[in-house]
From TrEMBL:
The chain crosses the membrane at residues 12-38, 44-65. Keywords: Membrane, Transmembrane, Transmembrane helix. It holds the Pfam family DUF2530. It comes from the Bacteria. It comes from Actinophytocola gossypii. This is DUF2530 domain-containing protein.
Amino acid sequence: MPPPPLPPRLLALAPIVYVGTTLWFLALAVLAVGHYAFDVFPPIWMWTALAGSVLGLIGIPIMLWQRNASRRGARGAQKIR
């Protein structure tokens, strides 16, 4: 017997990616101000937030590309529904 399908809210990838990327950018801004203006945060935290932001920006077009391929019916696309 196959497992039941996941609810749609668990399949919604876009909100997770957009919110996560936004939070990384906010963390980067706070850490940059804290590091350069007040010297309270170590620089590795700022570089980590920068890496999270960049990876989020890389992930957004990949997510959109995969969604469009799925809607087109491309053979190699991941099917969500």
